[in-house]
Amino acid sequence: MIIIKKNRNKLKKPQKLSNIEDRKEEVRIFDDNMTQFTHQLQANINIINEYLGENVDLACRYIDINTIPITRAAIIFIRSIADTQKLEATVIEPLAHNILQSLKKDSYDDYSKTADAVKDLVTNSEVEGIFDVNTSIDALLKGNGILFIDDNPIAFKIGIVKESEKKYADAKTERVIMGPQEAFVEDIEAFVEDINENTFMLRKKINSPHFIVKEIIIGRHSKTKVRIAYLDNLVKSSIVDEVFFRLEKIDVDGIMGSSSVSEYISDSPASLFPTIFSTERPDRIQAMLLEGRVAIISDGSPIALVVPCVAGDFFSTPEDYYLNFYFTSFNRLLGYIGAIFVMFAPSIYIAFTTYHQELLPTSLALTISGTRLGVPYPAFLEALLMEISFEALREAGTRLPIHAGQAVSIVGALIIGQSAVEAGLVSPTVIIVVAFTAIFSLAMPFNNFSMALRLTRFLNMTLAAILGIYGIMTGALIILLTLLSLRAFGTPFMLPFSPLNLQDLKDWVLRFPQWAITKRSSYFSINPQKKADNLKPTPSDEGMKK
Amino acid sequence: MKKKLILLTMLFIVVFTTSCWSRREIEDLGFVMGLGVSKTEDGFYRVVAQLANPNYIVAESPEPTSIYTIMKAEGLTVFDALRNLSKIGKRRLYIAHLSTIVIHEDVAKEGLRKIMSLFVQDMELRLASNILISRVPPEEIFDTPNRIAATPAVALEIIADNYGANSKIYVSDLLKAVDAASNPSMNYVTALVEKLSPPTKNEFPQLILSKIAVFKNDKLAGYLDHEDGQAYNLITNNFQIGLIVFETKDGSDKIVIEVLNSEAKITPKFINNQVHFDVKLEVEGSIAERMPLHLKYYQIDFNEIQEQFDIVLKDKLKRAFFIAQQHYKIDYFNFYKYFYREYPKEFKDMMDNWNNVFSNAKINIEINSKIEHTALNKNRGRI
């Protein structure tokens, strides 16, 4: 028997949020009166469309059931999280081929007959009648299908949830020790349209009617699918509009992966520093979507873009939220110190040894002087030589297969590290400086950002060789002004620092405990409160405290 | 656009026409660690520079004599002599890391003002180098190899930094010397360096900072021995953790007090045209050693020792003031600062004659000592 739930209570409606009324941004608010389905099939479909119609992967299939007269029916499902094969086999096929008696109701309230008939026909293991709109939306977002039959105000929930097989790739470039290991797979839709693995992964993580996935096609010949995902009650609509405006402007033969999309939509296309965040980890995208940002996933690329992004994002590793917050805060500070080190360490070495020997402690000055004795090149050339050979080594190590890569590191360590010093071509001090710079740059969580920092190092070295510390300060000013002038989709790039926002520093510079970070940055989101304020765990009563 | 281009070109030219001005590679520099100033019989100034040999310093076990070289040149002034050093085939001199300046007694007697001009003018130099007075030619002081792998100039700096362990000497730096040279009321004080003969056959000769050299303004006037050196440091608040040794009243024990904390407060008074100074000394210490002179142990009476300690300190200070007022007639404690702050108008009249005024000043000493505890350990060595 089918148990028909006559759950007429108002379920969790998308709440109207009081603290955003004074803002210009408008949040989509759902009609409170639409809690019940109607007798018209099309009206029912429209109700669902009201909630989820914006999504590209919402699908609706009309079926004519062989009754006399013919009964129209429709099944609605979300393509990326529903198992369409199951749908075809267990719902469409039996409904379309079997001959059935009339499904028209006999009396106004007697739906059980219809339900029984559907149950008899549909061979799916899970069929459940739902009267309530919210319950059916929740069911849809879980991956179920919703079957409407004309003249029946019932939604039949059909269990066609796509099973999550373990078929995503392990994260390769953003590895963590503790925490989820999954990563985006190569195709968001591998030729067959309904395998939407990447959308599936995101949909699995965010089950909200506010979660919108839209699609546009880019490329005259490649016709690449690019999907834009966001939560419409958190994101600033101006940012979403801007993303669409910029994506629609792209008129090219074809695009290769997300990174080439990012070059077309970047705010400062000529800037050294990336202003668009790219990641392969769904958990990270989930977190950023929940901060009110927009994710862009393109077909054929395992990398998703997230806009807007700020400098602070590049210092947080995917692992930050799986580890103890003291340790994570230390790691973040290490990252910031490392960034300064990467940019300035070799140039400080050059400036100190060729201009400002008085700034070195006496014993260090004597040691450097002693070890540099017999080195044929000036300090600048020496450091430049070593930095360039390190960059070449790094590049060789990435390009070569793993086994050959080891050979490169042996060559690097032995030949450059040891022999060059023994031959008196470079001093050991410069090797140490270069090694420290390399370690810090490799310890930075994001390669594209640390690459930008590494390039600034050469500018600083040149300036230091010409002007000493004055040159380093000039270089620092140039870098700082560049960073400060960057904007990412209307958001200042140096966000937690300039404009200074103490709330944001909690999660961008240090990592406060989860219960203490209760606000999103108001720069992306129209709804800053993301958690309750009193989440700090305390015993419930006096008895527990003893 | 054109404007931008012109600006950019100008910037480019400004930056790149400096052509690495004042660039010098660190390995080309001769690091001068010590500088000595003396006078020849003909009246020329003689400058001795002690250079560090960096390549031997980084060597694994350098010869004590190989880590430095000494250069000597003469000239009409100190700077002239220093420039004459460049005629000698060595590295280019670099005096920013100068740690010790040794000045010969004869030059110091003539006055530091004459030779300070170079040190004031030269921007390369930090004013933190220590100044020491020597009775022997500075080159002899600098040519004292040691086994601690430090150039003699640096070894002298190490001794100077650790003066607080005994608090019997006081070393002052170039900044104070420049100050004294330009301030006629200030009397300079620093340490005397001497060379000891080697303690054993196989050892090298050794350097010692033996006495405090006191100056009348910038001219060397004489020396203070250990006792007065301690008193000097107590009065001028430079006393660190030195030891004060005395015998108990009945002569049964020798007590050593290690001073933990000392503070002297000087209050000037001007009554009936007579300058008075109230010196209030507060000393905290602990009993660090007890040497029984007879074979008999008894309970230490704290109050008694404290009273005794008060008397010892008072005698020390009295003696120090007596020497300053009666023997040297110089205010090398630089009490003029306190007086000037309280009575700036009156000081103006006495300024030229201050040392005499100080010599006739009445000094009232008040000691307030406190012995915190015995640092003596009874149980060590017992089960």
From TrEMBL, chain A:
Kindly state a single biological-process term from the GO annotations of this entry.
spore germination
Q: Which GO terms describe its cellular component?
A: membrane
Keyword Repressor in the entry? The reply is no
- Mind telling me which residue stretches traverse the membrane in this protein? 333-355, 425-446, 458-486
The UniProt keywords, alphabetically, are:
Membrane, Transmembrane, Transmembrane helix
Transmembrane in keyword set: yes
A Pfam family it matches: GerA
Under InterPro entries, the record lists: Spore_Ger, UPF0353/GerABKA_families
Q: Which PANTHER family match?
A: LEUCINE ZIPPER PROTEIN 4, SPORE GERMINATION PROTEIN
Q: Which family does it belong to?
A: Belongs to the GerABKA family.
Q: What is the name of the protein in this document? A: Spore germination protein
Species this protein is from? Alkaliphilus pronyensis
From TrEMBL, chain B:
State where it is primarily located.
Answer: membrane
Domain called Spore germination protein N-terminal: residue spans: 23-193
InterPro entries (alphabetical) = GerAC_N (IPR057336), Spore_GerAC-like (IPR008844), Spore_GerAC-like_C (IPR046953), Spore_GerAC_C_sf (IPR038501)
**Membrane topology of this protein:** Lipid-anchor
- Asked whether the UniProt record includes Isomerase among its keywords, one would answer no
Q: Ranges for the Spore germination GerAC-like C-terminal domain?
A: 211-374
One example of a Gene Ontology biological process annotation: spore germination
User: Pfam families in the record, alphabetically?
Assistant: Spore_GerAC, Spore_GerAC_N
What does the UniProt keyword field contain? Answer: Germination, Lipoprotein, Membrane, Palmitate, Signal
Compartment list:
Membrane
Any GO CC annotation of this UniProt entry = membrane
- The answer on whether this UniProt entry bears the keyword DNA-binding reads no
Q: Which family does it belong to?
A: Belongs to the GerABKC lipoprotein family.
Q: What is this protein called?
A: Ger(X)C family spore germination protein
